[in-house]
Structures are given as structure tokens and as C-alpha cells.
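As described in the Methods, two query proteins were run sequentially through the folding procedure within a single session, without resetting any intermediate state between them. The first query and its resulting C-alpha cells are shown here.
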Amino acid sequence: VSAFSDPQTGASGGRPLPVNSDRDFIGYCVNLLWRMHHRMALRSPKLGEMIAFRRLMSSIPRESAVDEASIEAIVRQHGLKLRYIPEAGIINKGPETFRDFVKQRRRIQNGHLWLMKHQNYQVVSQNKGTLLSILKEEIMANPTDLPRLAGAVLLEIYCRLLGSWDYYVKGKNPFTWDISSSTKKIKA
């Protein structure tokens, strides 16, 4: 909340920290995704999971499947800044199953395409140059994980292709979606 002492700050968010173990492939993908989002957000704030924002709208667009990204767009359209607060850790739970991972990533890709068309906003994770740069950083930081990283990249490409197919070919908008149930099971 201290970020709002700057009147130019329109929204802020912390760093999601998944509780998923990275010992299995999907857990690795979840952890990789949030590590990459952290690296992206350090360059260009990308907010997700839990954010605070100034009330600049009467409501979040109902048709958006990516509410935090829609808020980012509104904040930017008002000429305000996004602030990433990496010290503010947000414990979250990513998908545990292949099916839930694909379901979630497919919906998010579709939502980002909707956002580009309807709110004229591209999230930083859709920028191919940024993605390649961040991927290179990940390879340098964790060279022994290259085989799993390659698999995760192929899985993300697959999910993005499915989300793009849903959006462009099927005309689908997943603004209401099936919950990825494995994201809701917390082990005590």
C-alpha cells in the first residue's frame, strides 16, 4: 500500500510464490512460470494474483478472463504507473495436473488476446523479445534444467496455440471458466 504515496501509482502487486514442488514436471512448470514473471515484472511491472489499485473504474470489464491484466490496462490508459513490489510475497498454488495446467494457460492466452482487441493493451508476457531475453536469463541461471525447460517451453507454446485457436477460430471468450481444481487443494 505504501506504493500509493506516489500519486502517479495506479496499481501495485507483489511477487507470487508457488507452493508447488518443482520435483515433478507440472510443478516445475508452475515455478518456472512465476520465476519468469518475476523477471519480467522487474523490467516492466506485471501484476497478478493479488493486487491493490486506485478506483479508476466502476467495475472490471465483465467479459475479461484476465482481471488483473484488465486493471493494468485501465491504469495505463489513465496515464498512471504500475508498481511491482517483489518483497511482498504472495503464497499461491498453481495447477498440479497436466489437464489443469493446460486449462489455465489456455484460458489466460485467450484472455490476453481479448485484452489486446478490446482494451488495446498487451501484457509484457506477450512480448516475444522480452520472453526470449528472460528465457536466456533462465538458461544461464539454471543450465542443468535445460531439458525440463525445453519441455515447459513446448507446453506453453501448445497452450498458447490452443488459446489462440479458441479465440480466433472458435470465437470463444472464457470470461467465466471452469476452475482448475488442483489449484485449490492445499496440503496441511
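Immediately afterward, the second query was submitted; its sequence and C-alpha cells are:
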Amino acid sequence: MQVEYVPSLLRQRVLYDPPRGPARFEAYTTSMLNAQRDGIDWPFVALNPMGKQHVPAHYEALLAFDAEAIAQQTLAEIQADFPPMDFALRMTLVVVDDLMGGWTQQHFTDWAYRFNLMPNPKNTWLPIYSWTRASLLQP
């Protein structure tokens, strides 16, 4: 299997720089849609663009302990155990707010991701969700 880790935490983190409102939501949709705005280039659908301050803090914690380098290294180690396949997939971390937002409920979001009844054959992403409810600051 050929899976490439694509860093995206900084791309997601900057979405929380503008104040909550229409401009932030537009930045969110622009960040994931293709140029024609008829398909998704990045797997950020589960991301909560109107997240409160705990969401950027979650990104900062992930970035502080270099979560993307860890994910990339772990992926490389896992792939060594699998034979090559004739297709390629992309993997990235996506922060999903299940703590203080009404946007996401963890069980429904996880179920929809795992058991998608209408998969898109053009979608080559494997998003790895980092839930905001999971504290990254405690030992």
C-alpha cells in the first residue's frame, strides 16, 4: 500500500485566526474545496470552523509535540509491513471539535467516516481525527 502523510495542521490552524463569523466560515470552505468549488481537495469536512478558543489550543498542543512528524514516522513503520498496491492514498491529521461545539458529535462523526454508504471513488484521503475532548496537556 502506498500512503503518503500530508501535513495540514498549520493549514487548519490559520482558519481560527479571524474572529468567528462569515469570514472564518468562508476561509474554511475555501481551504477544503477545489478551485471549481464542486469537490473537496482536503478532508476538513468534520472540522468545526466556528470552534472556540480550546480548538486553536488543541492545534498548538499538537504542533508543540510535533504530532505530524510522529504520524509520518509511524506511517512509514507500518507501511514497511505491507506489500505495494497499485493505488495511492493520502493521510493527514484533522482536529475535530467534540468538546464545546454543536457541529460535531463524536459517535455519529466516527460512524459516518467508517461506514460511508456512498463512498466517493475520487476521495483518496484517510483523515486521522484528533478529538478536542481528548486532553493533550495531561500526562
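Helices lie at 9-13, 22-32, 54-64, 67-79, 106-114. We note this only descriptively and draw no conclusion about the first query from it.
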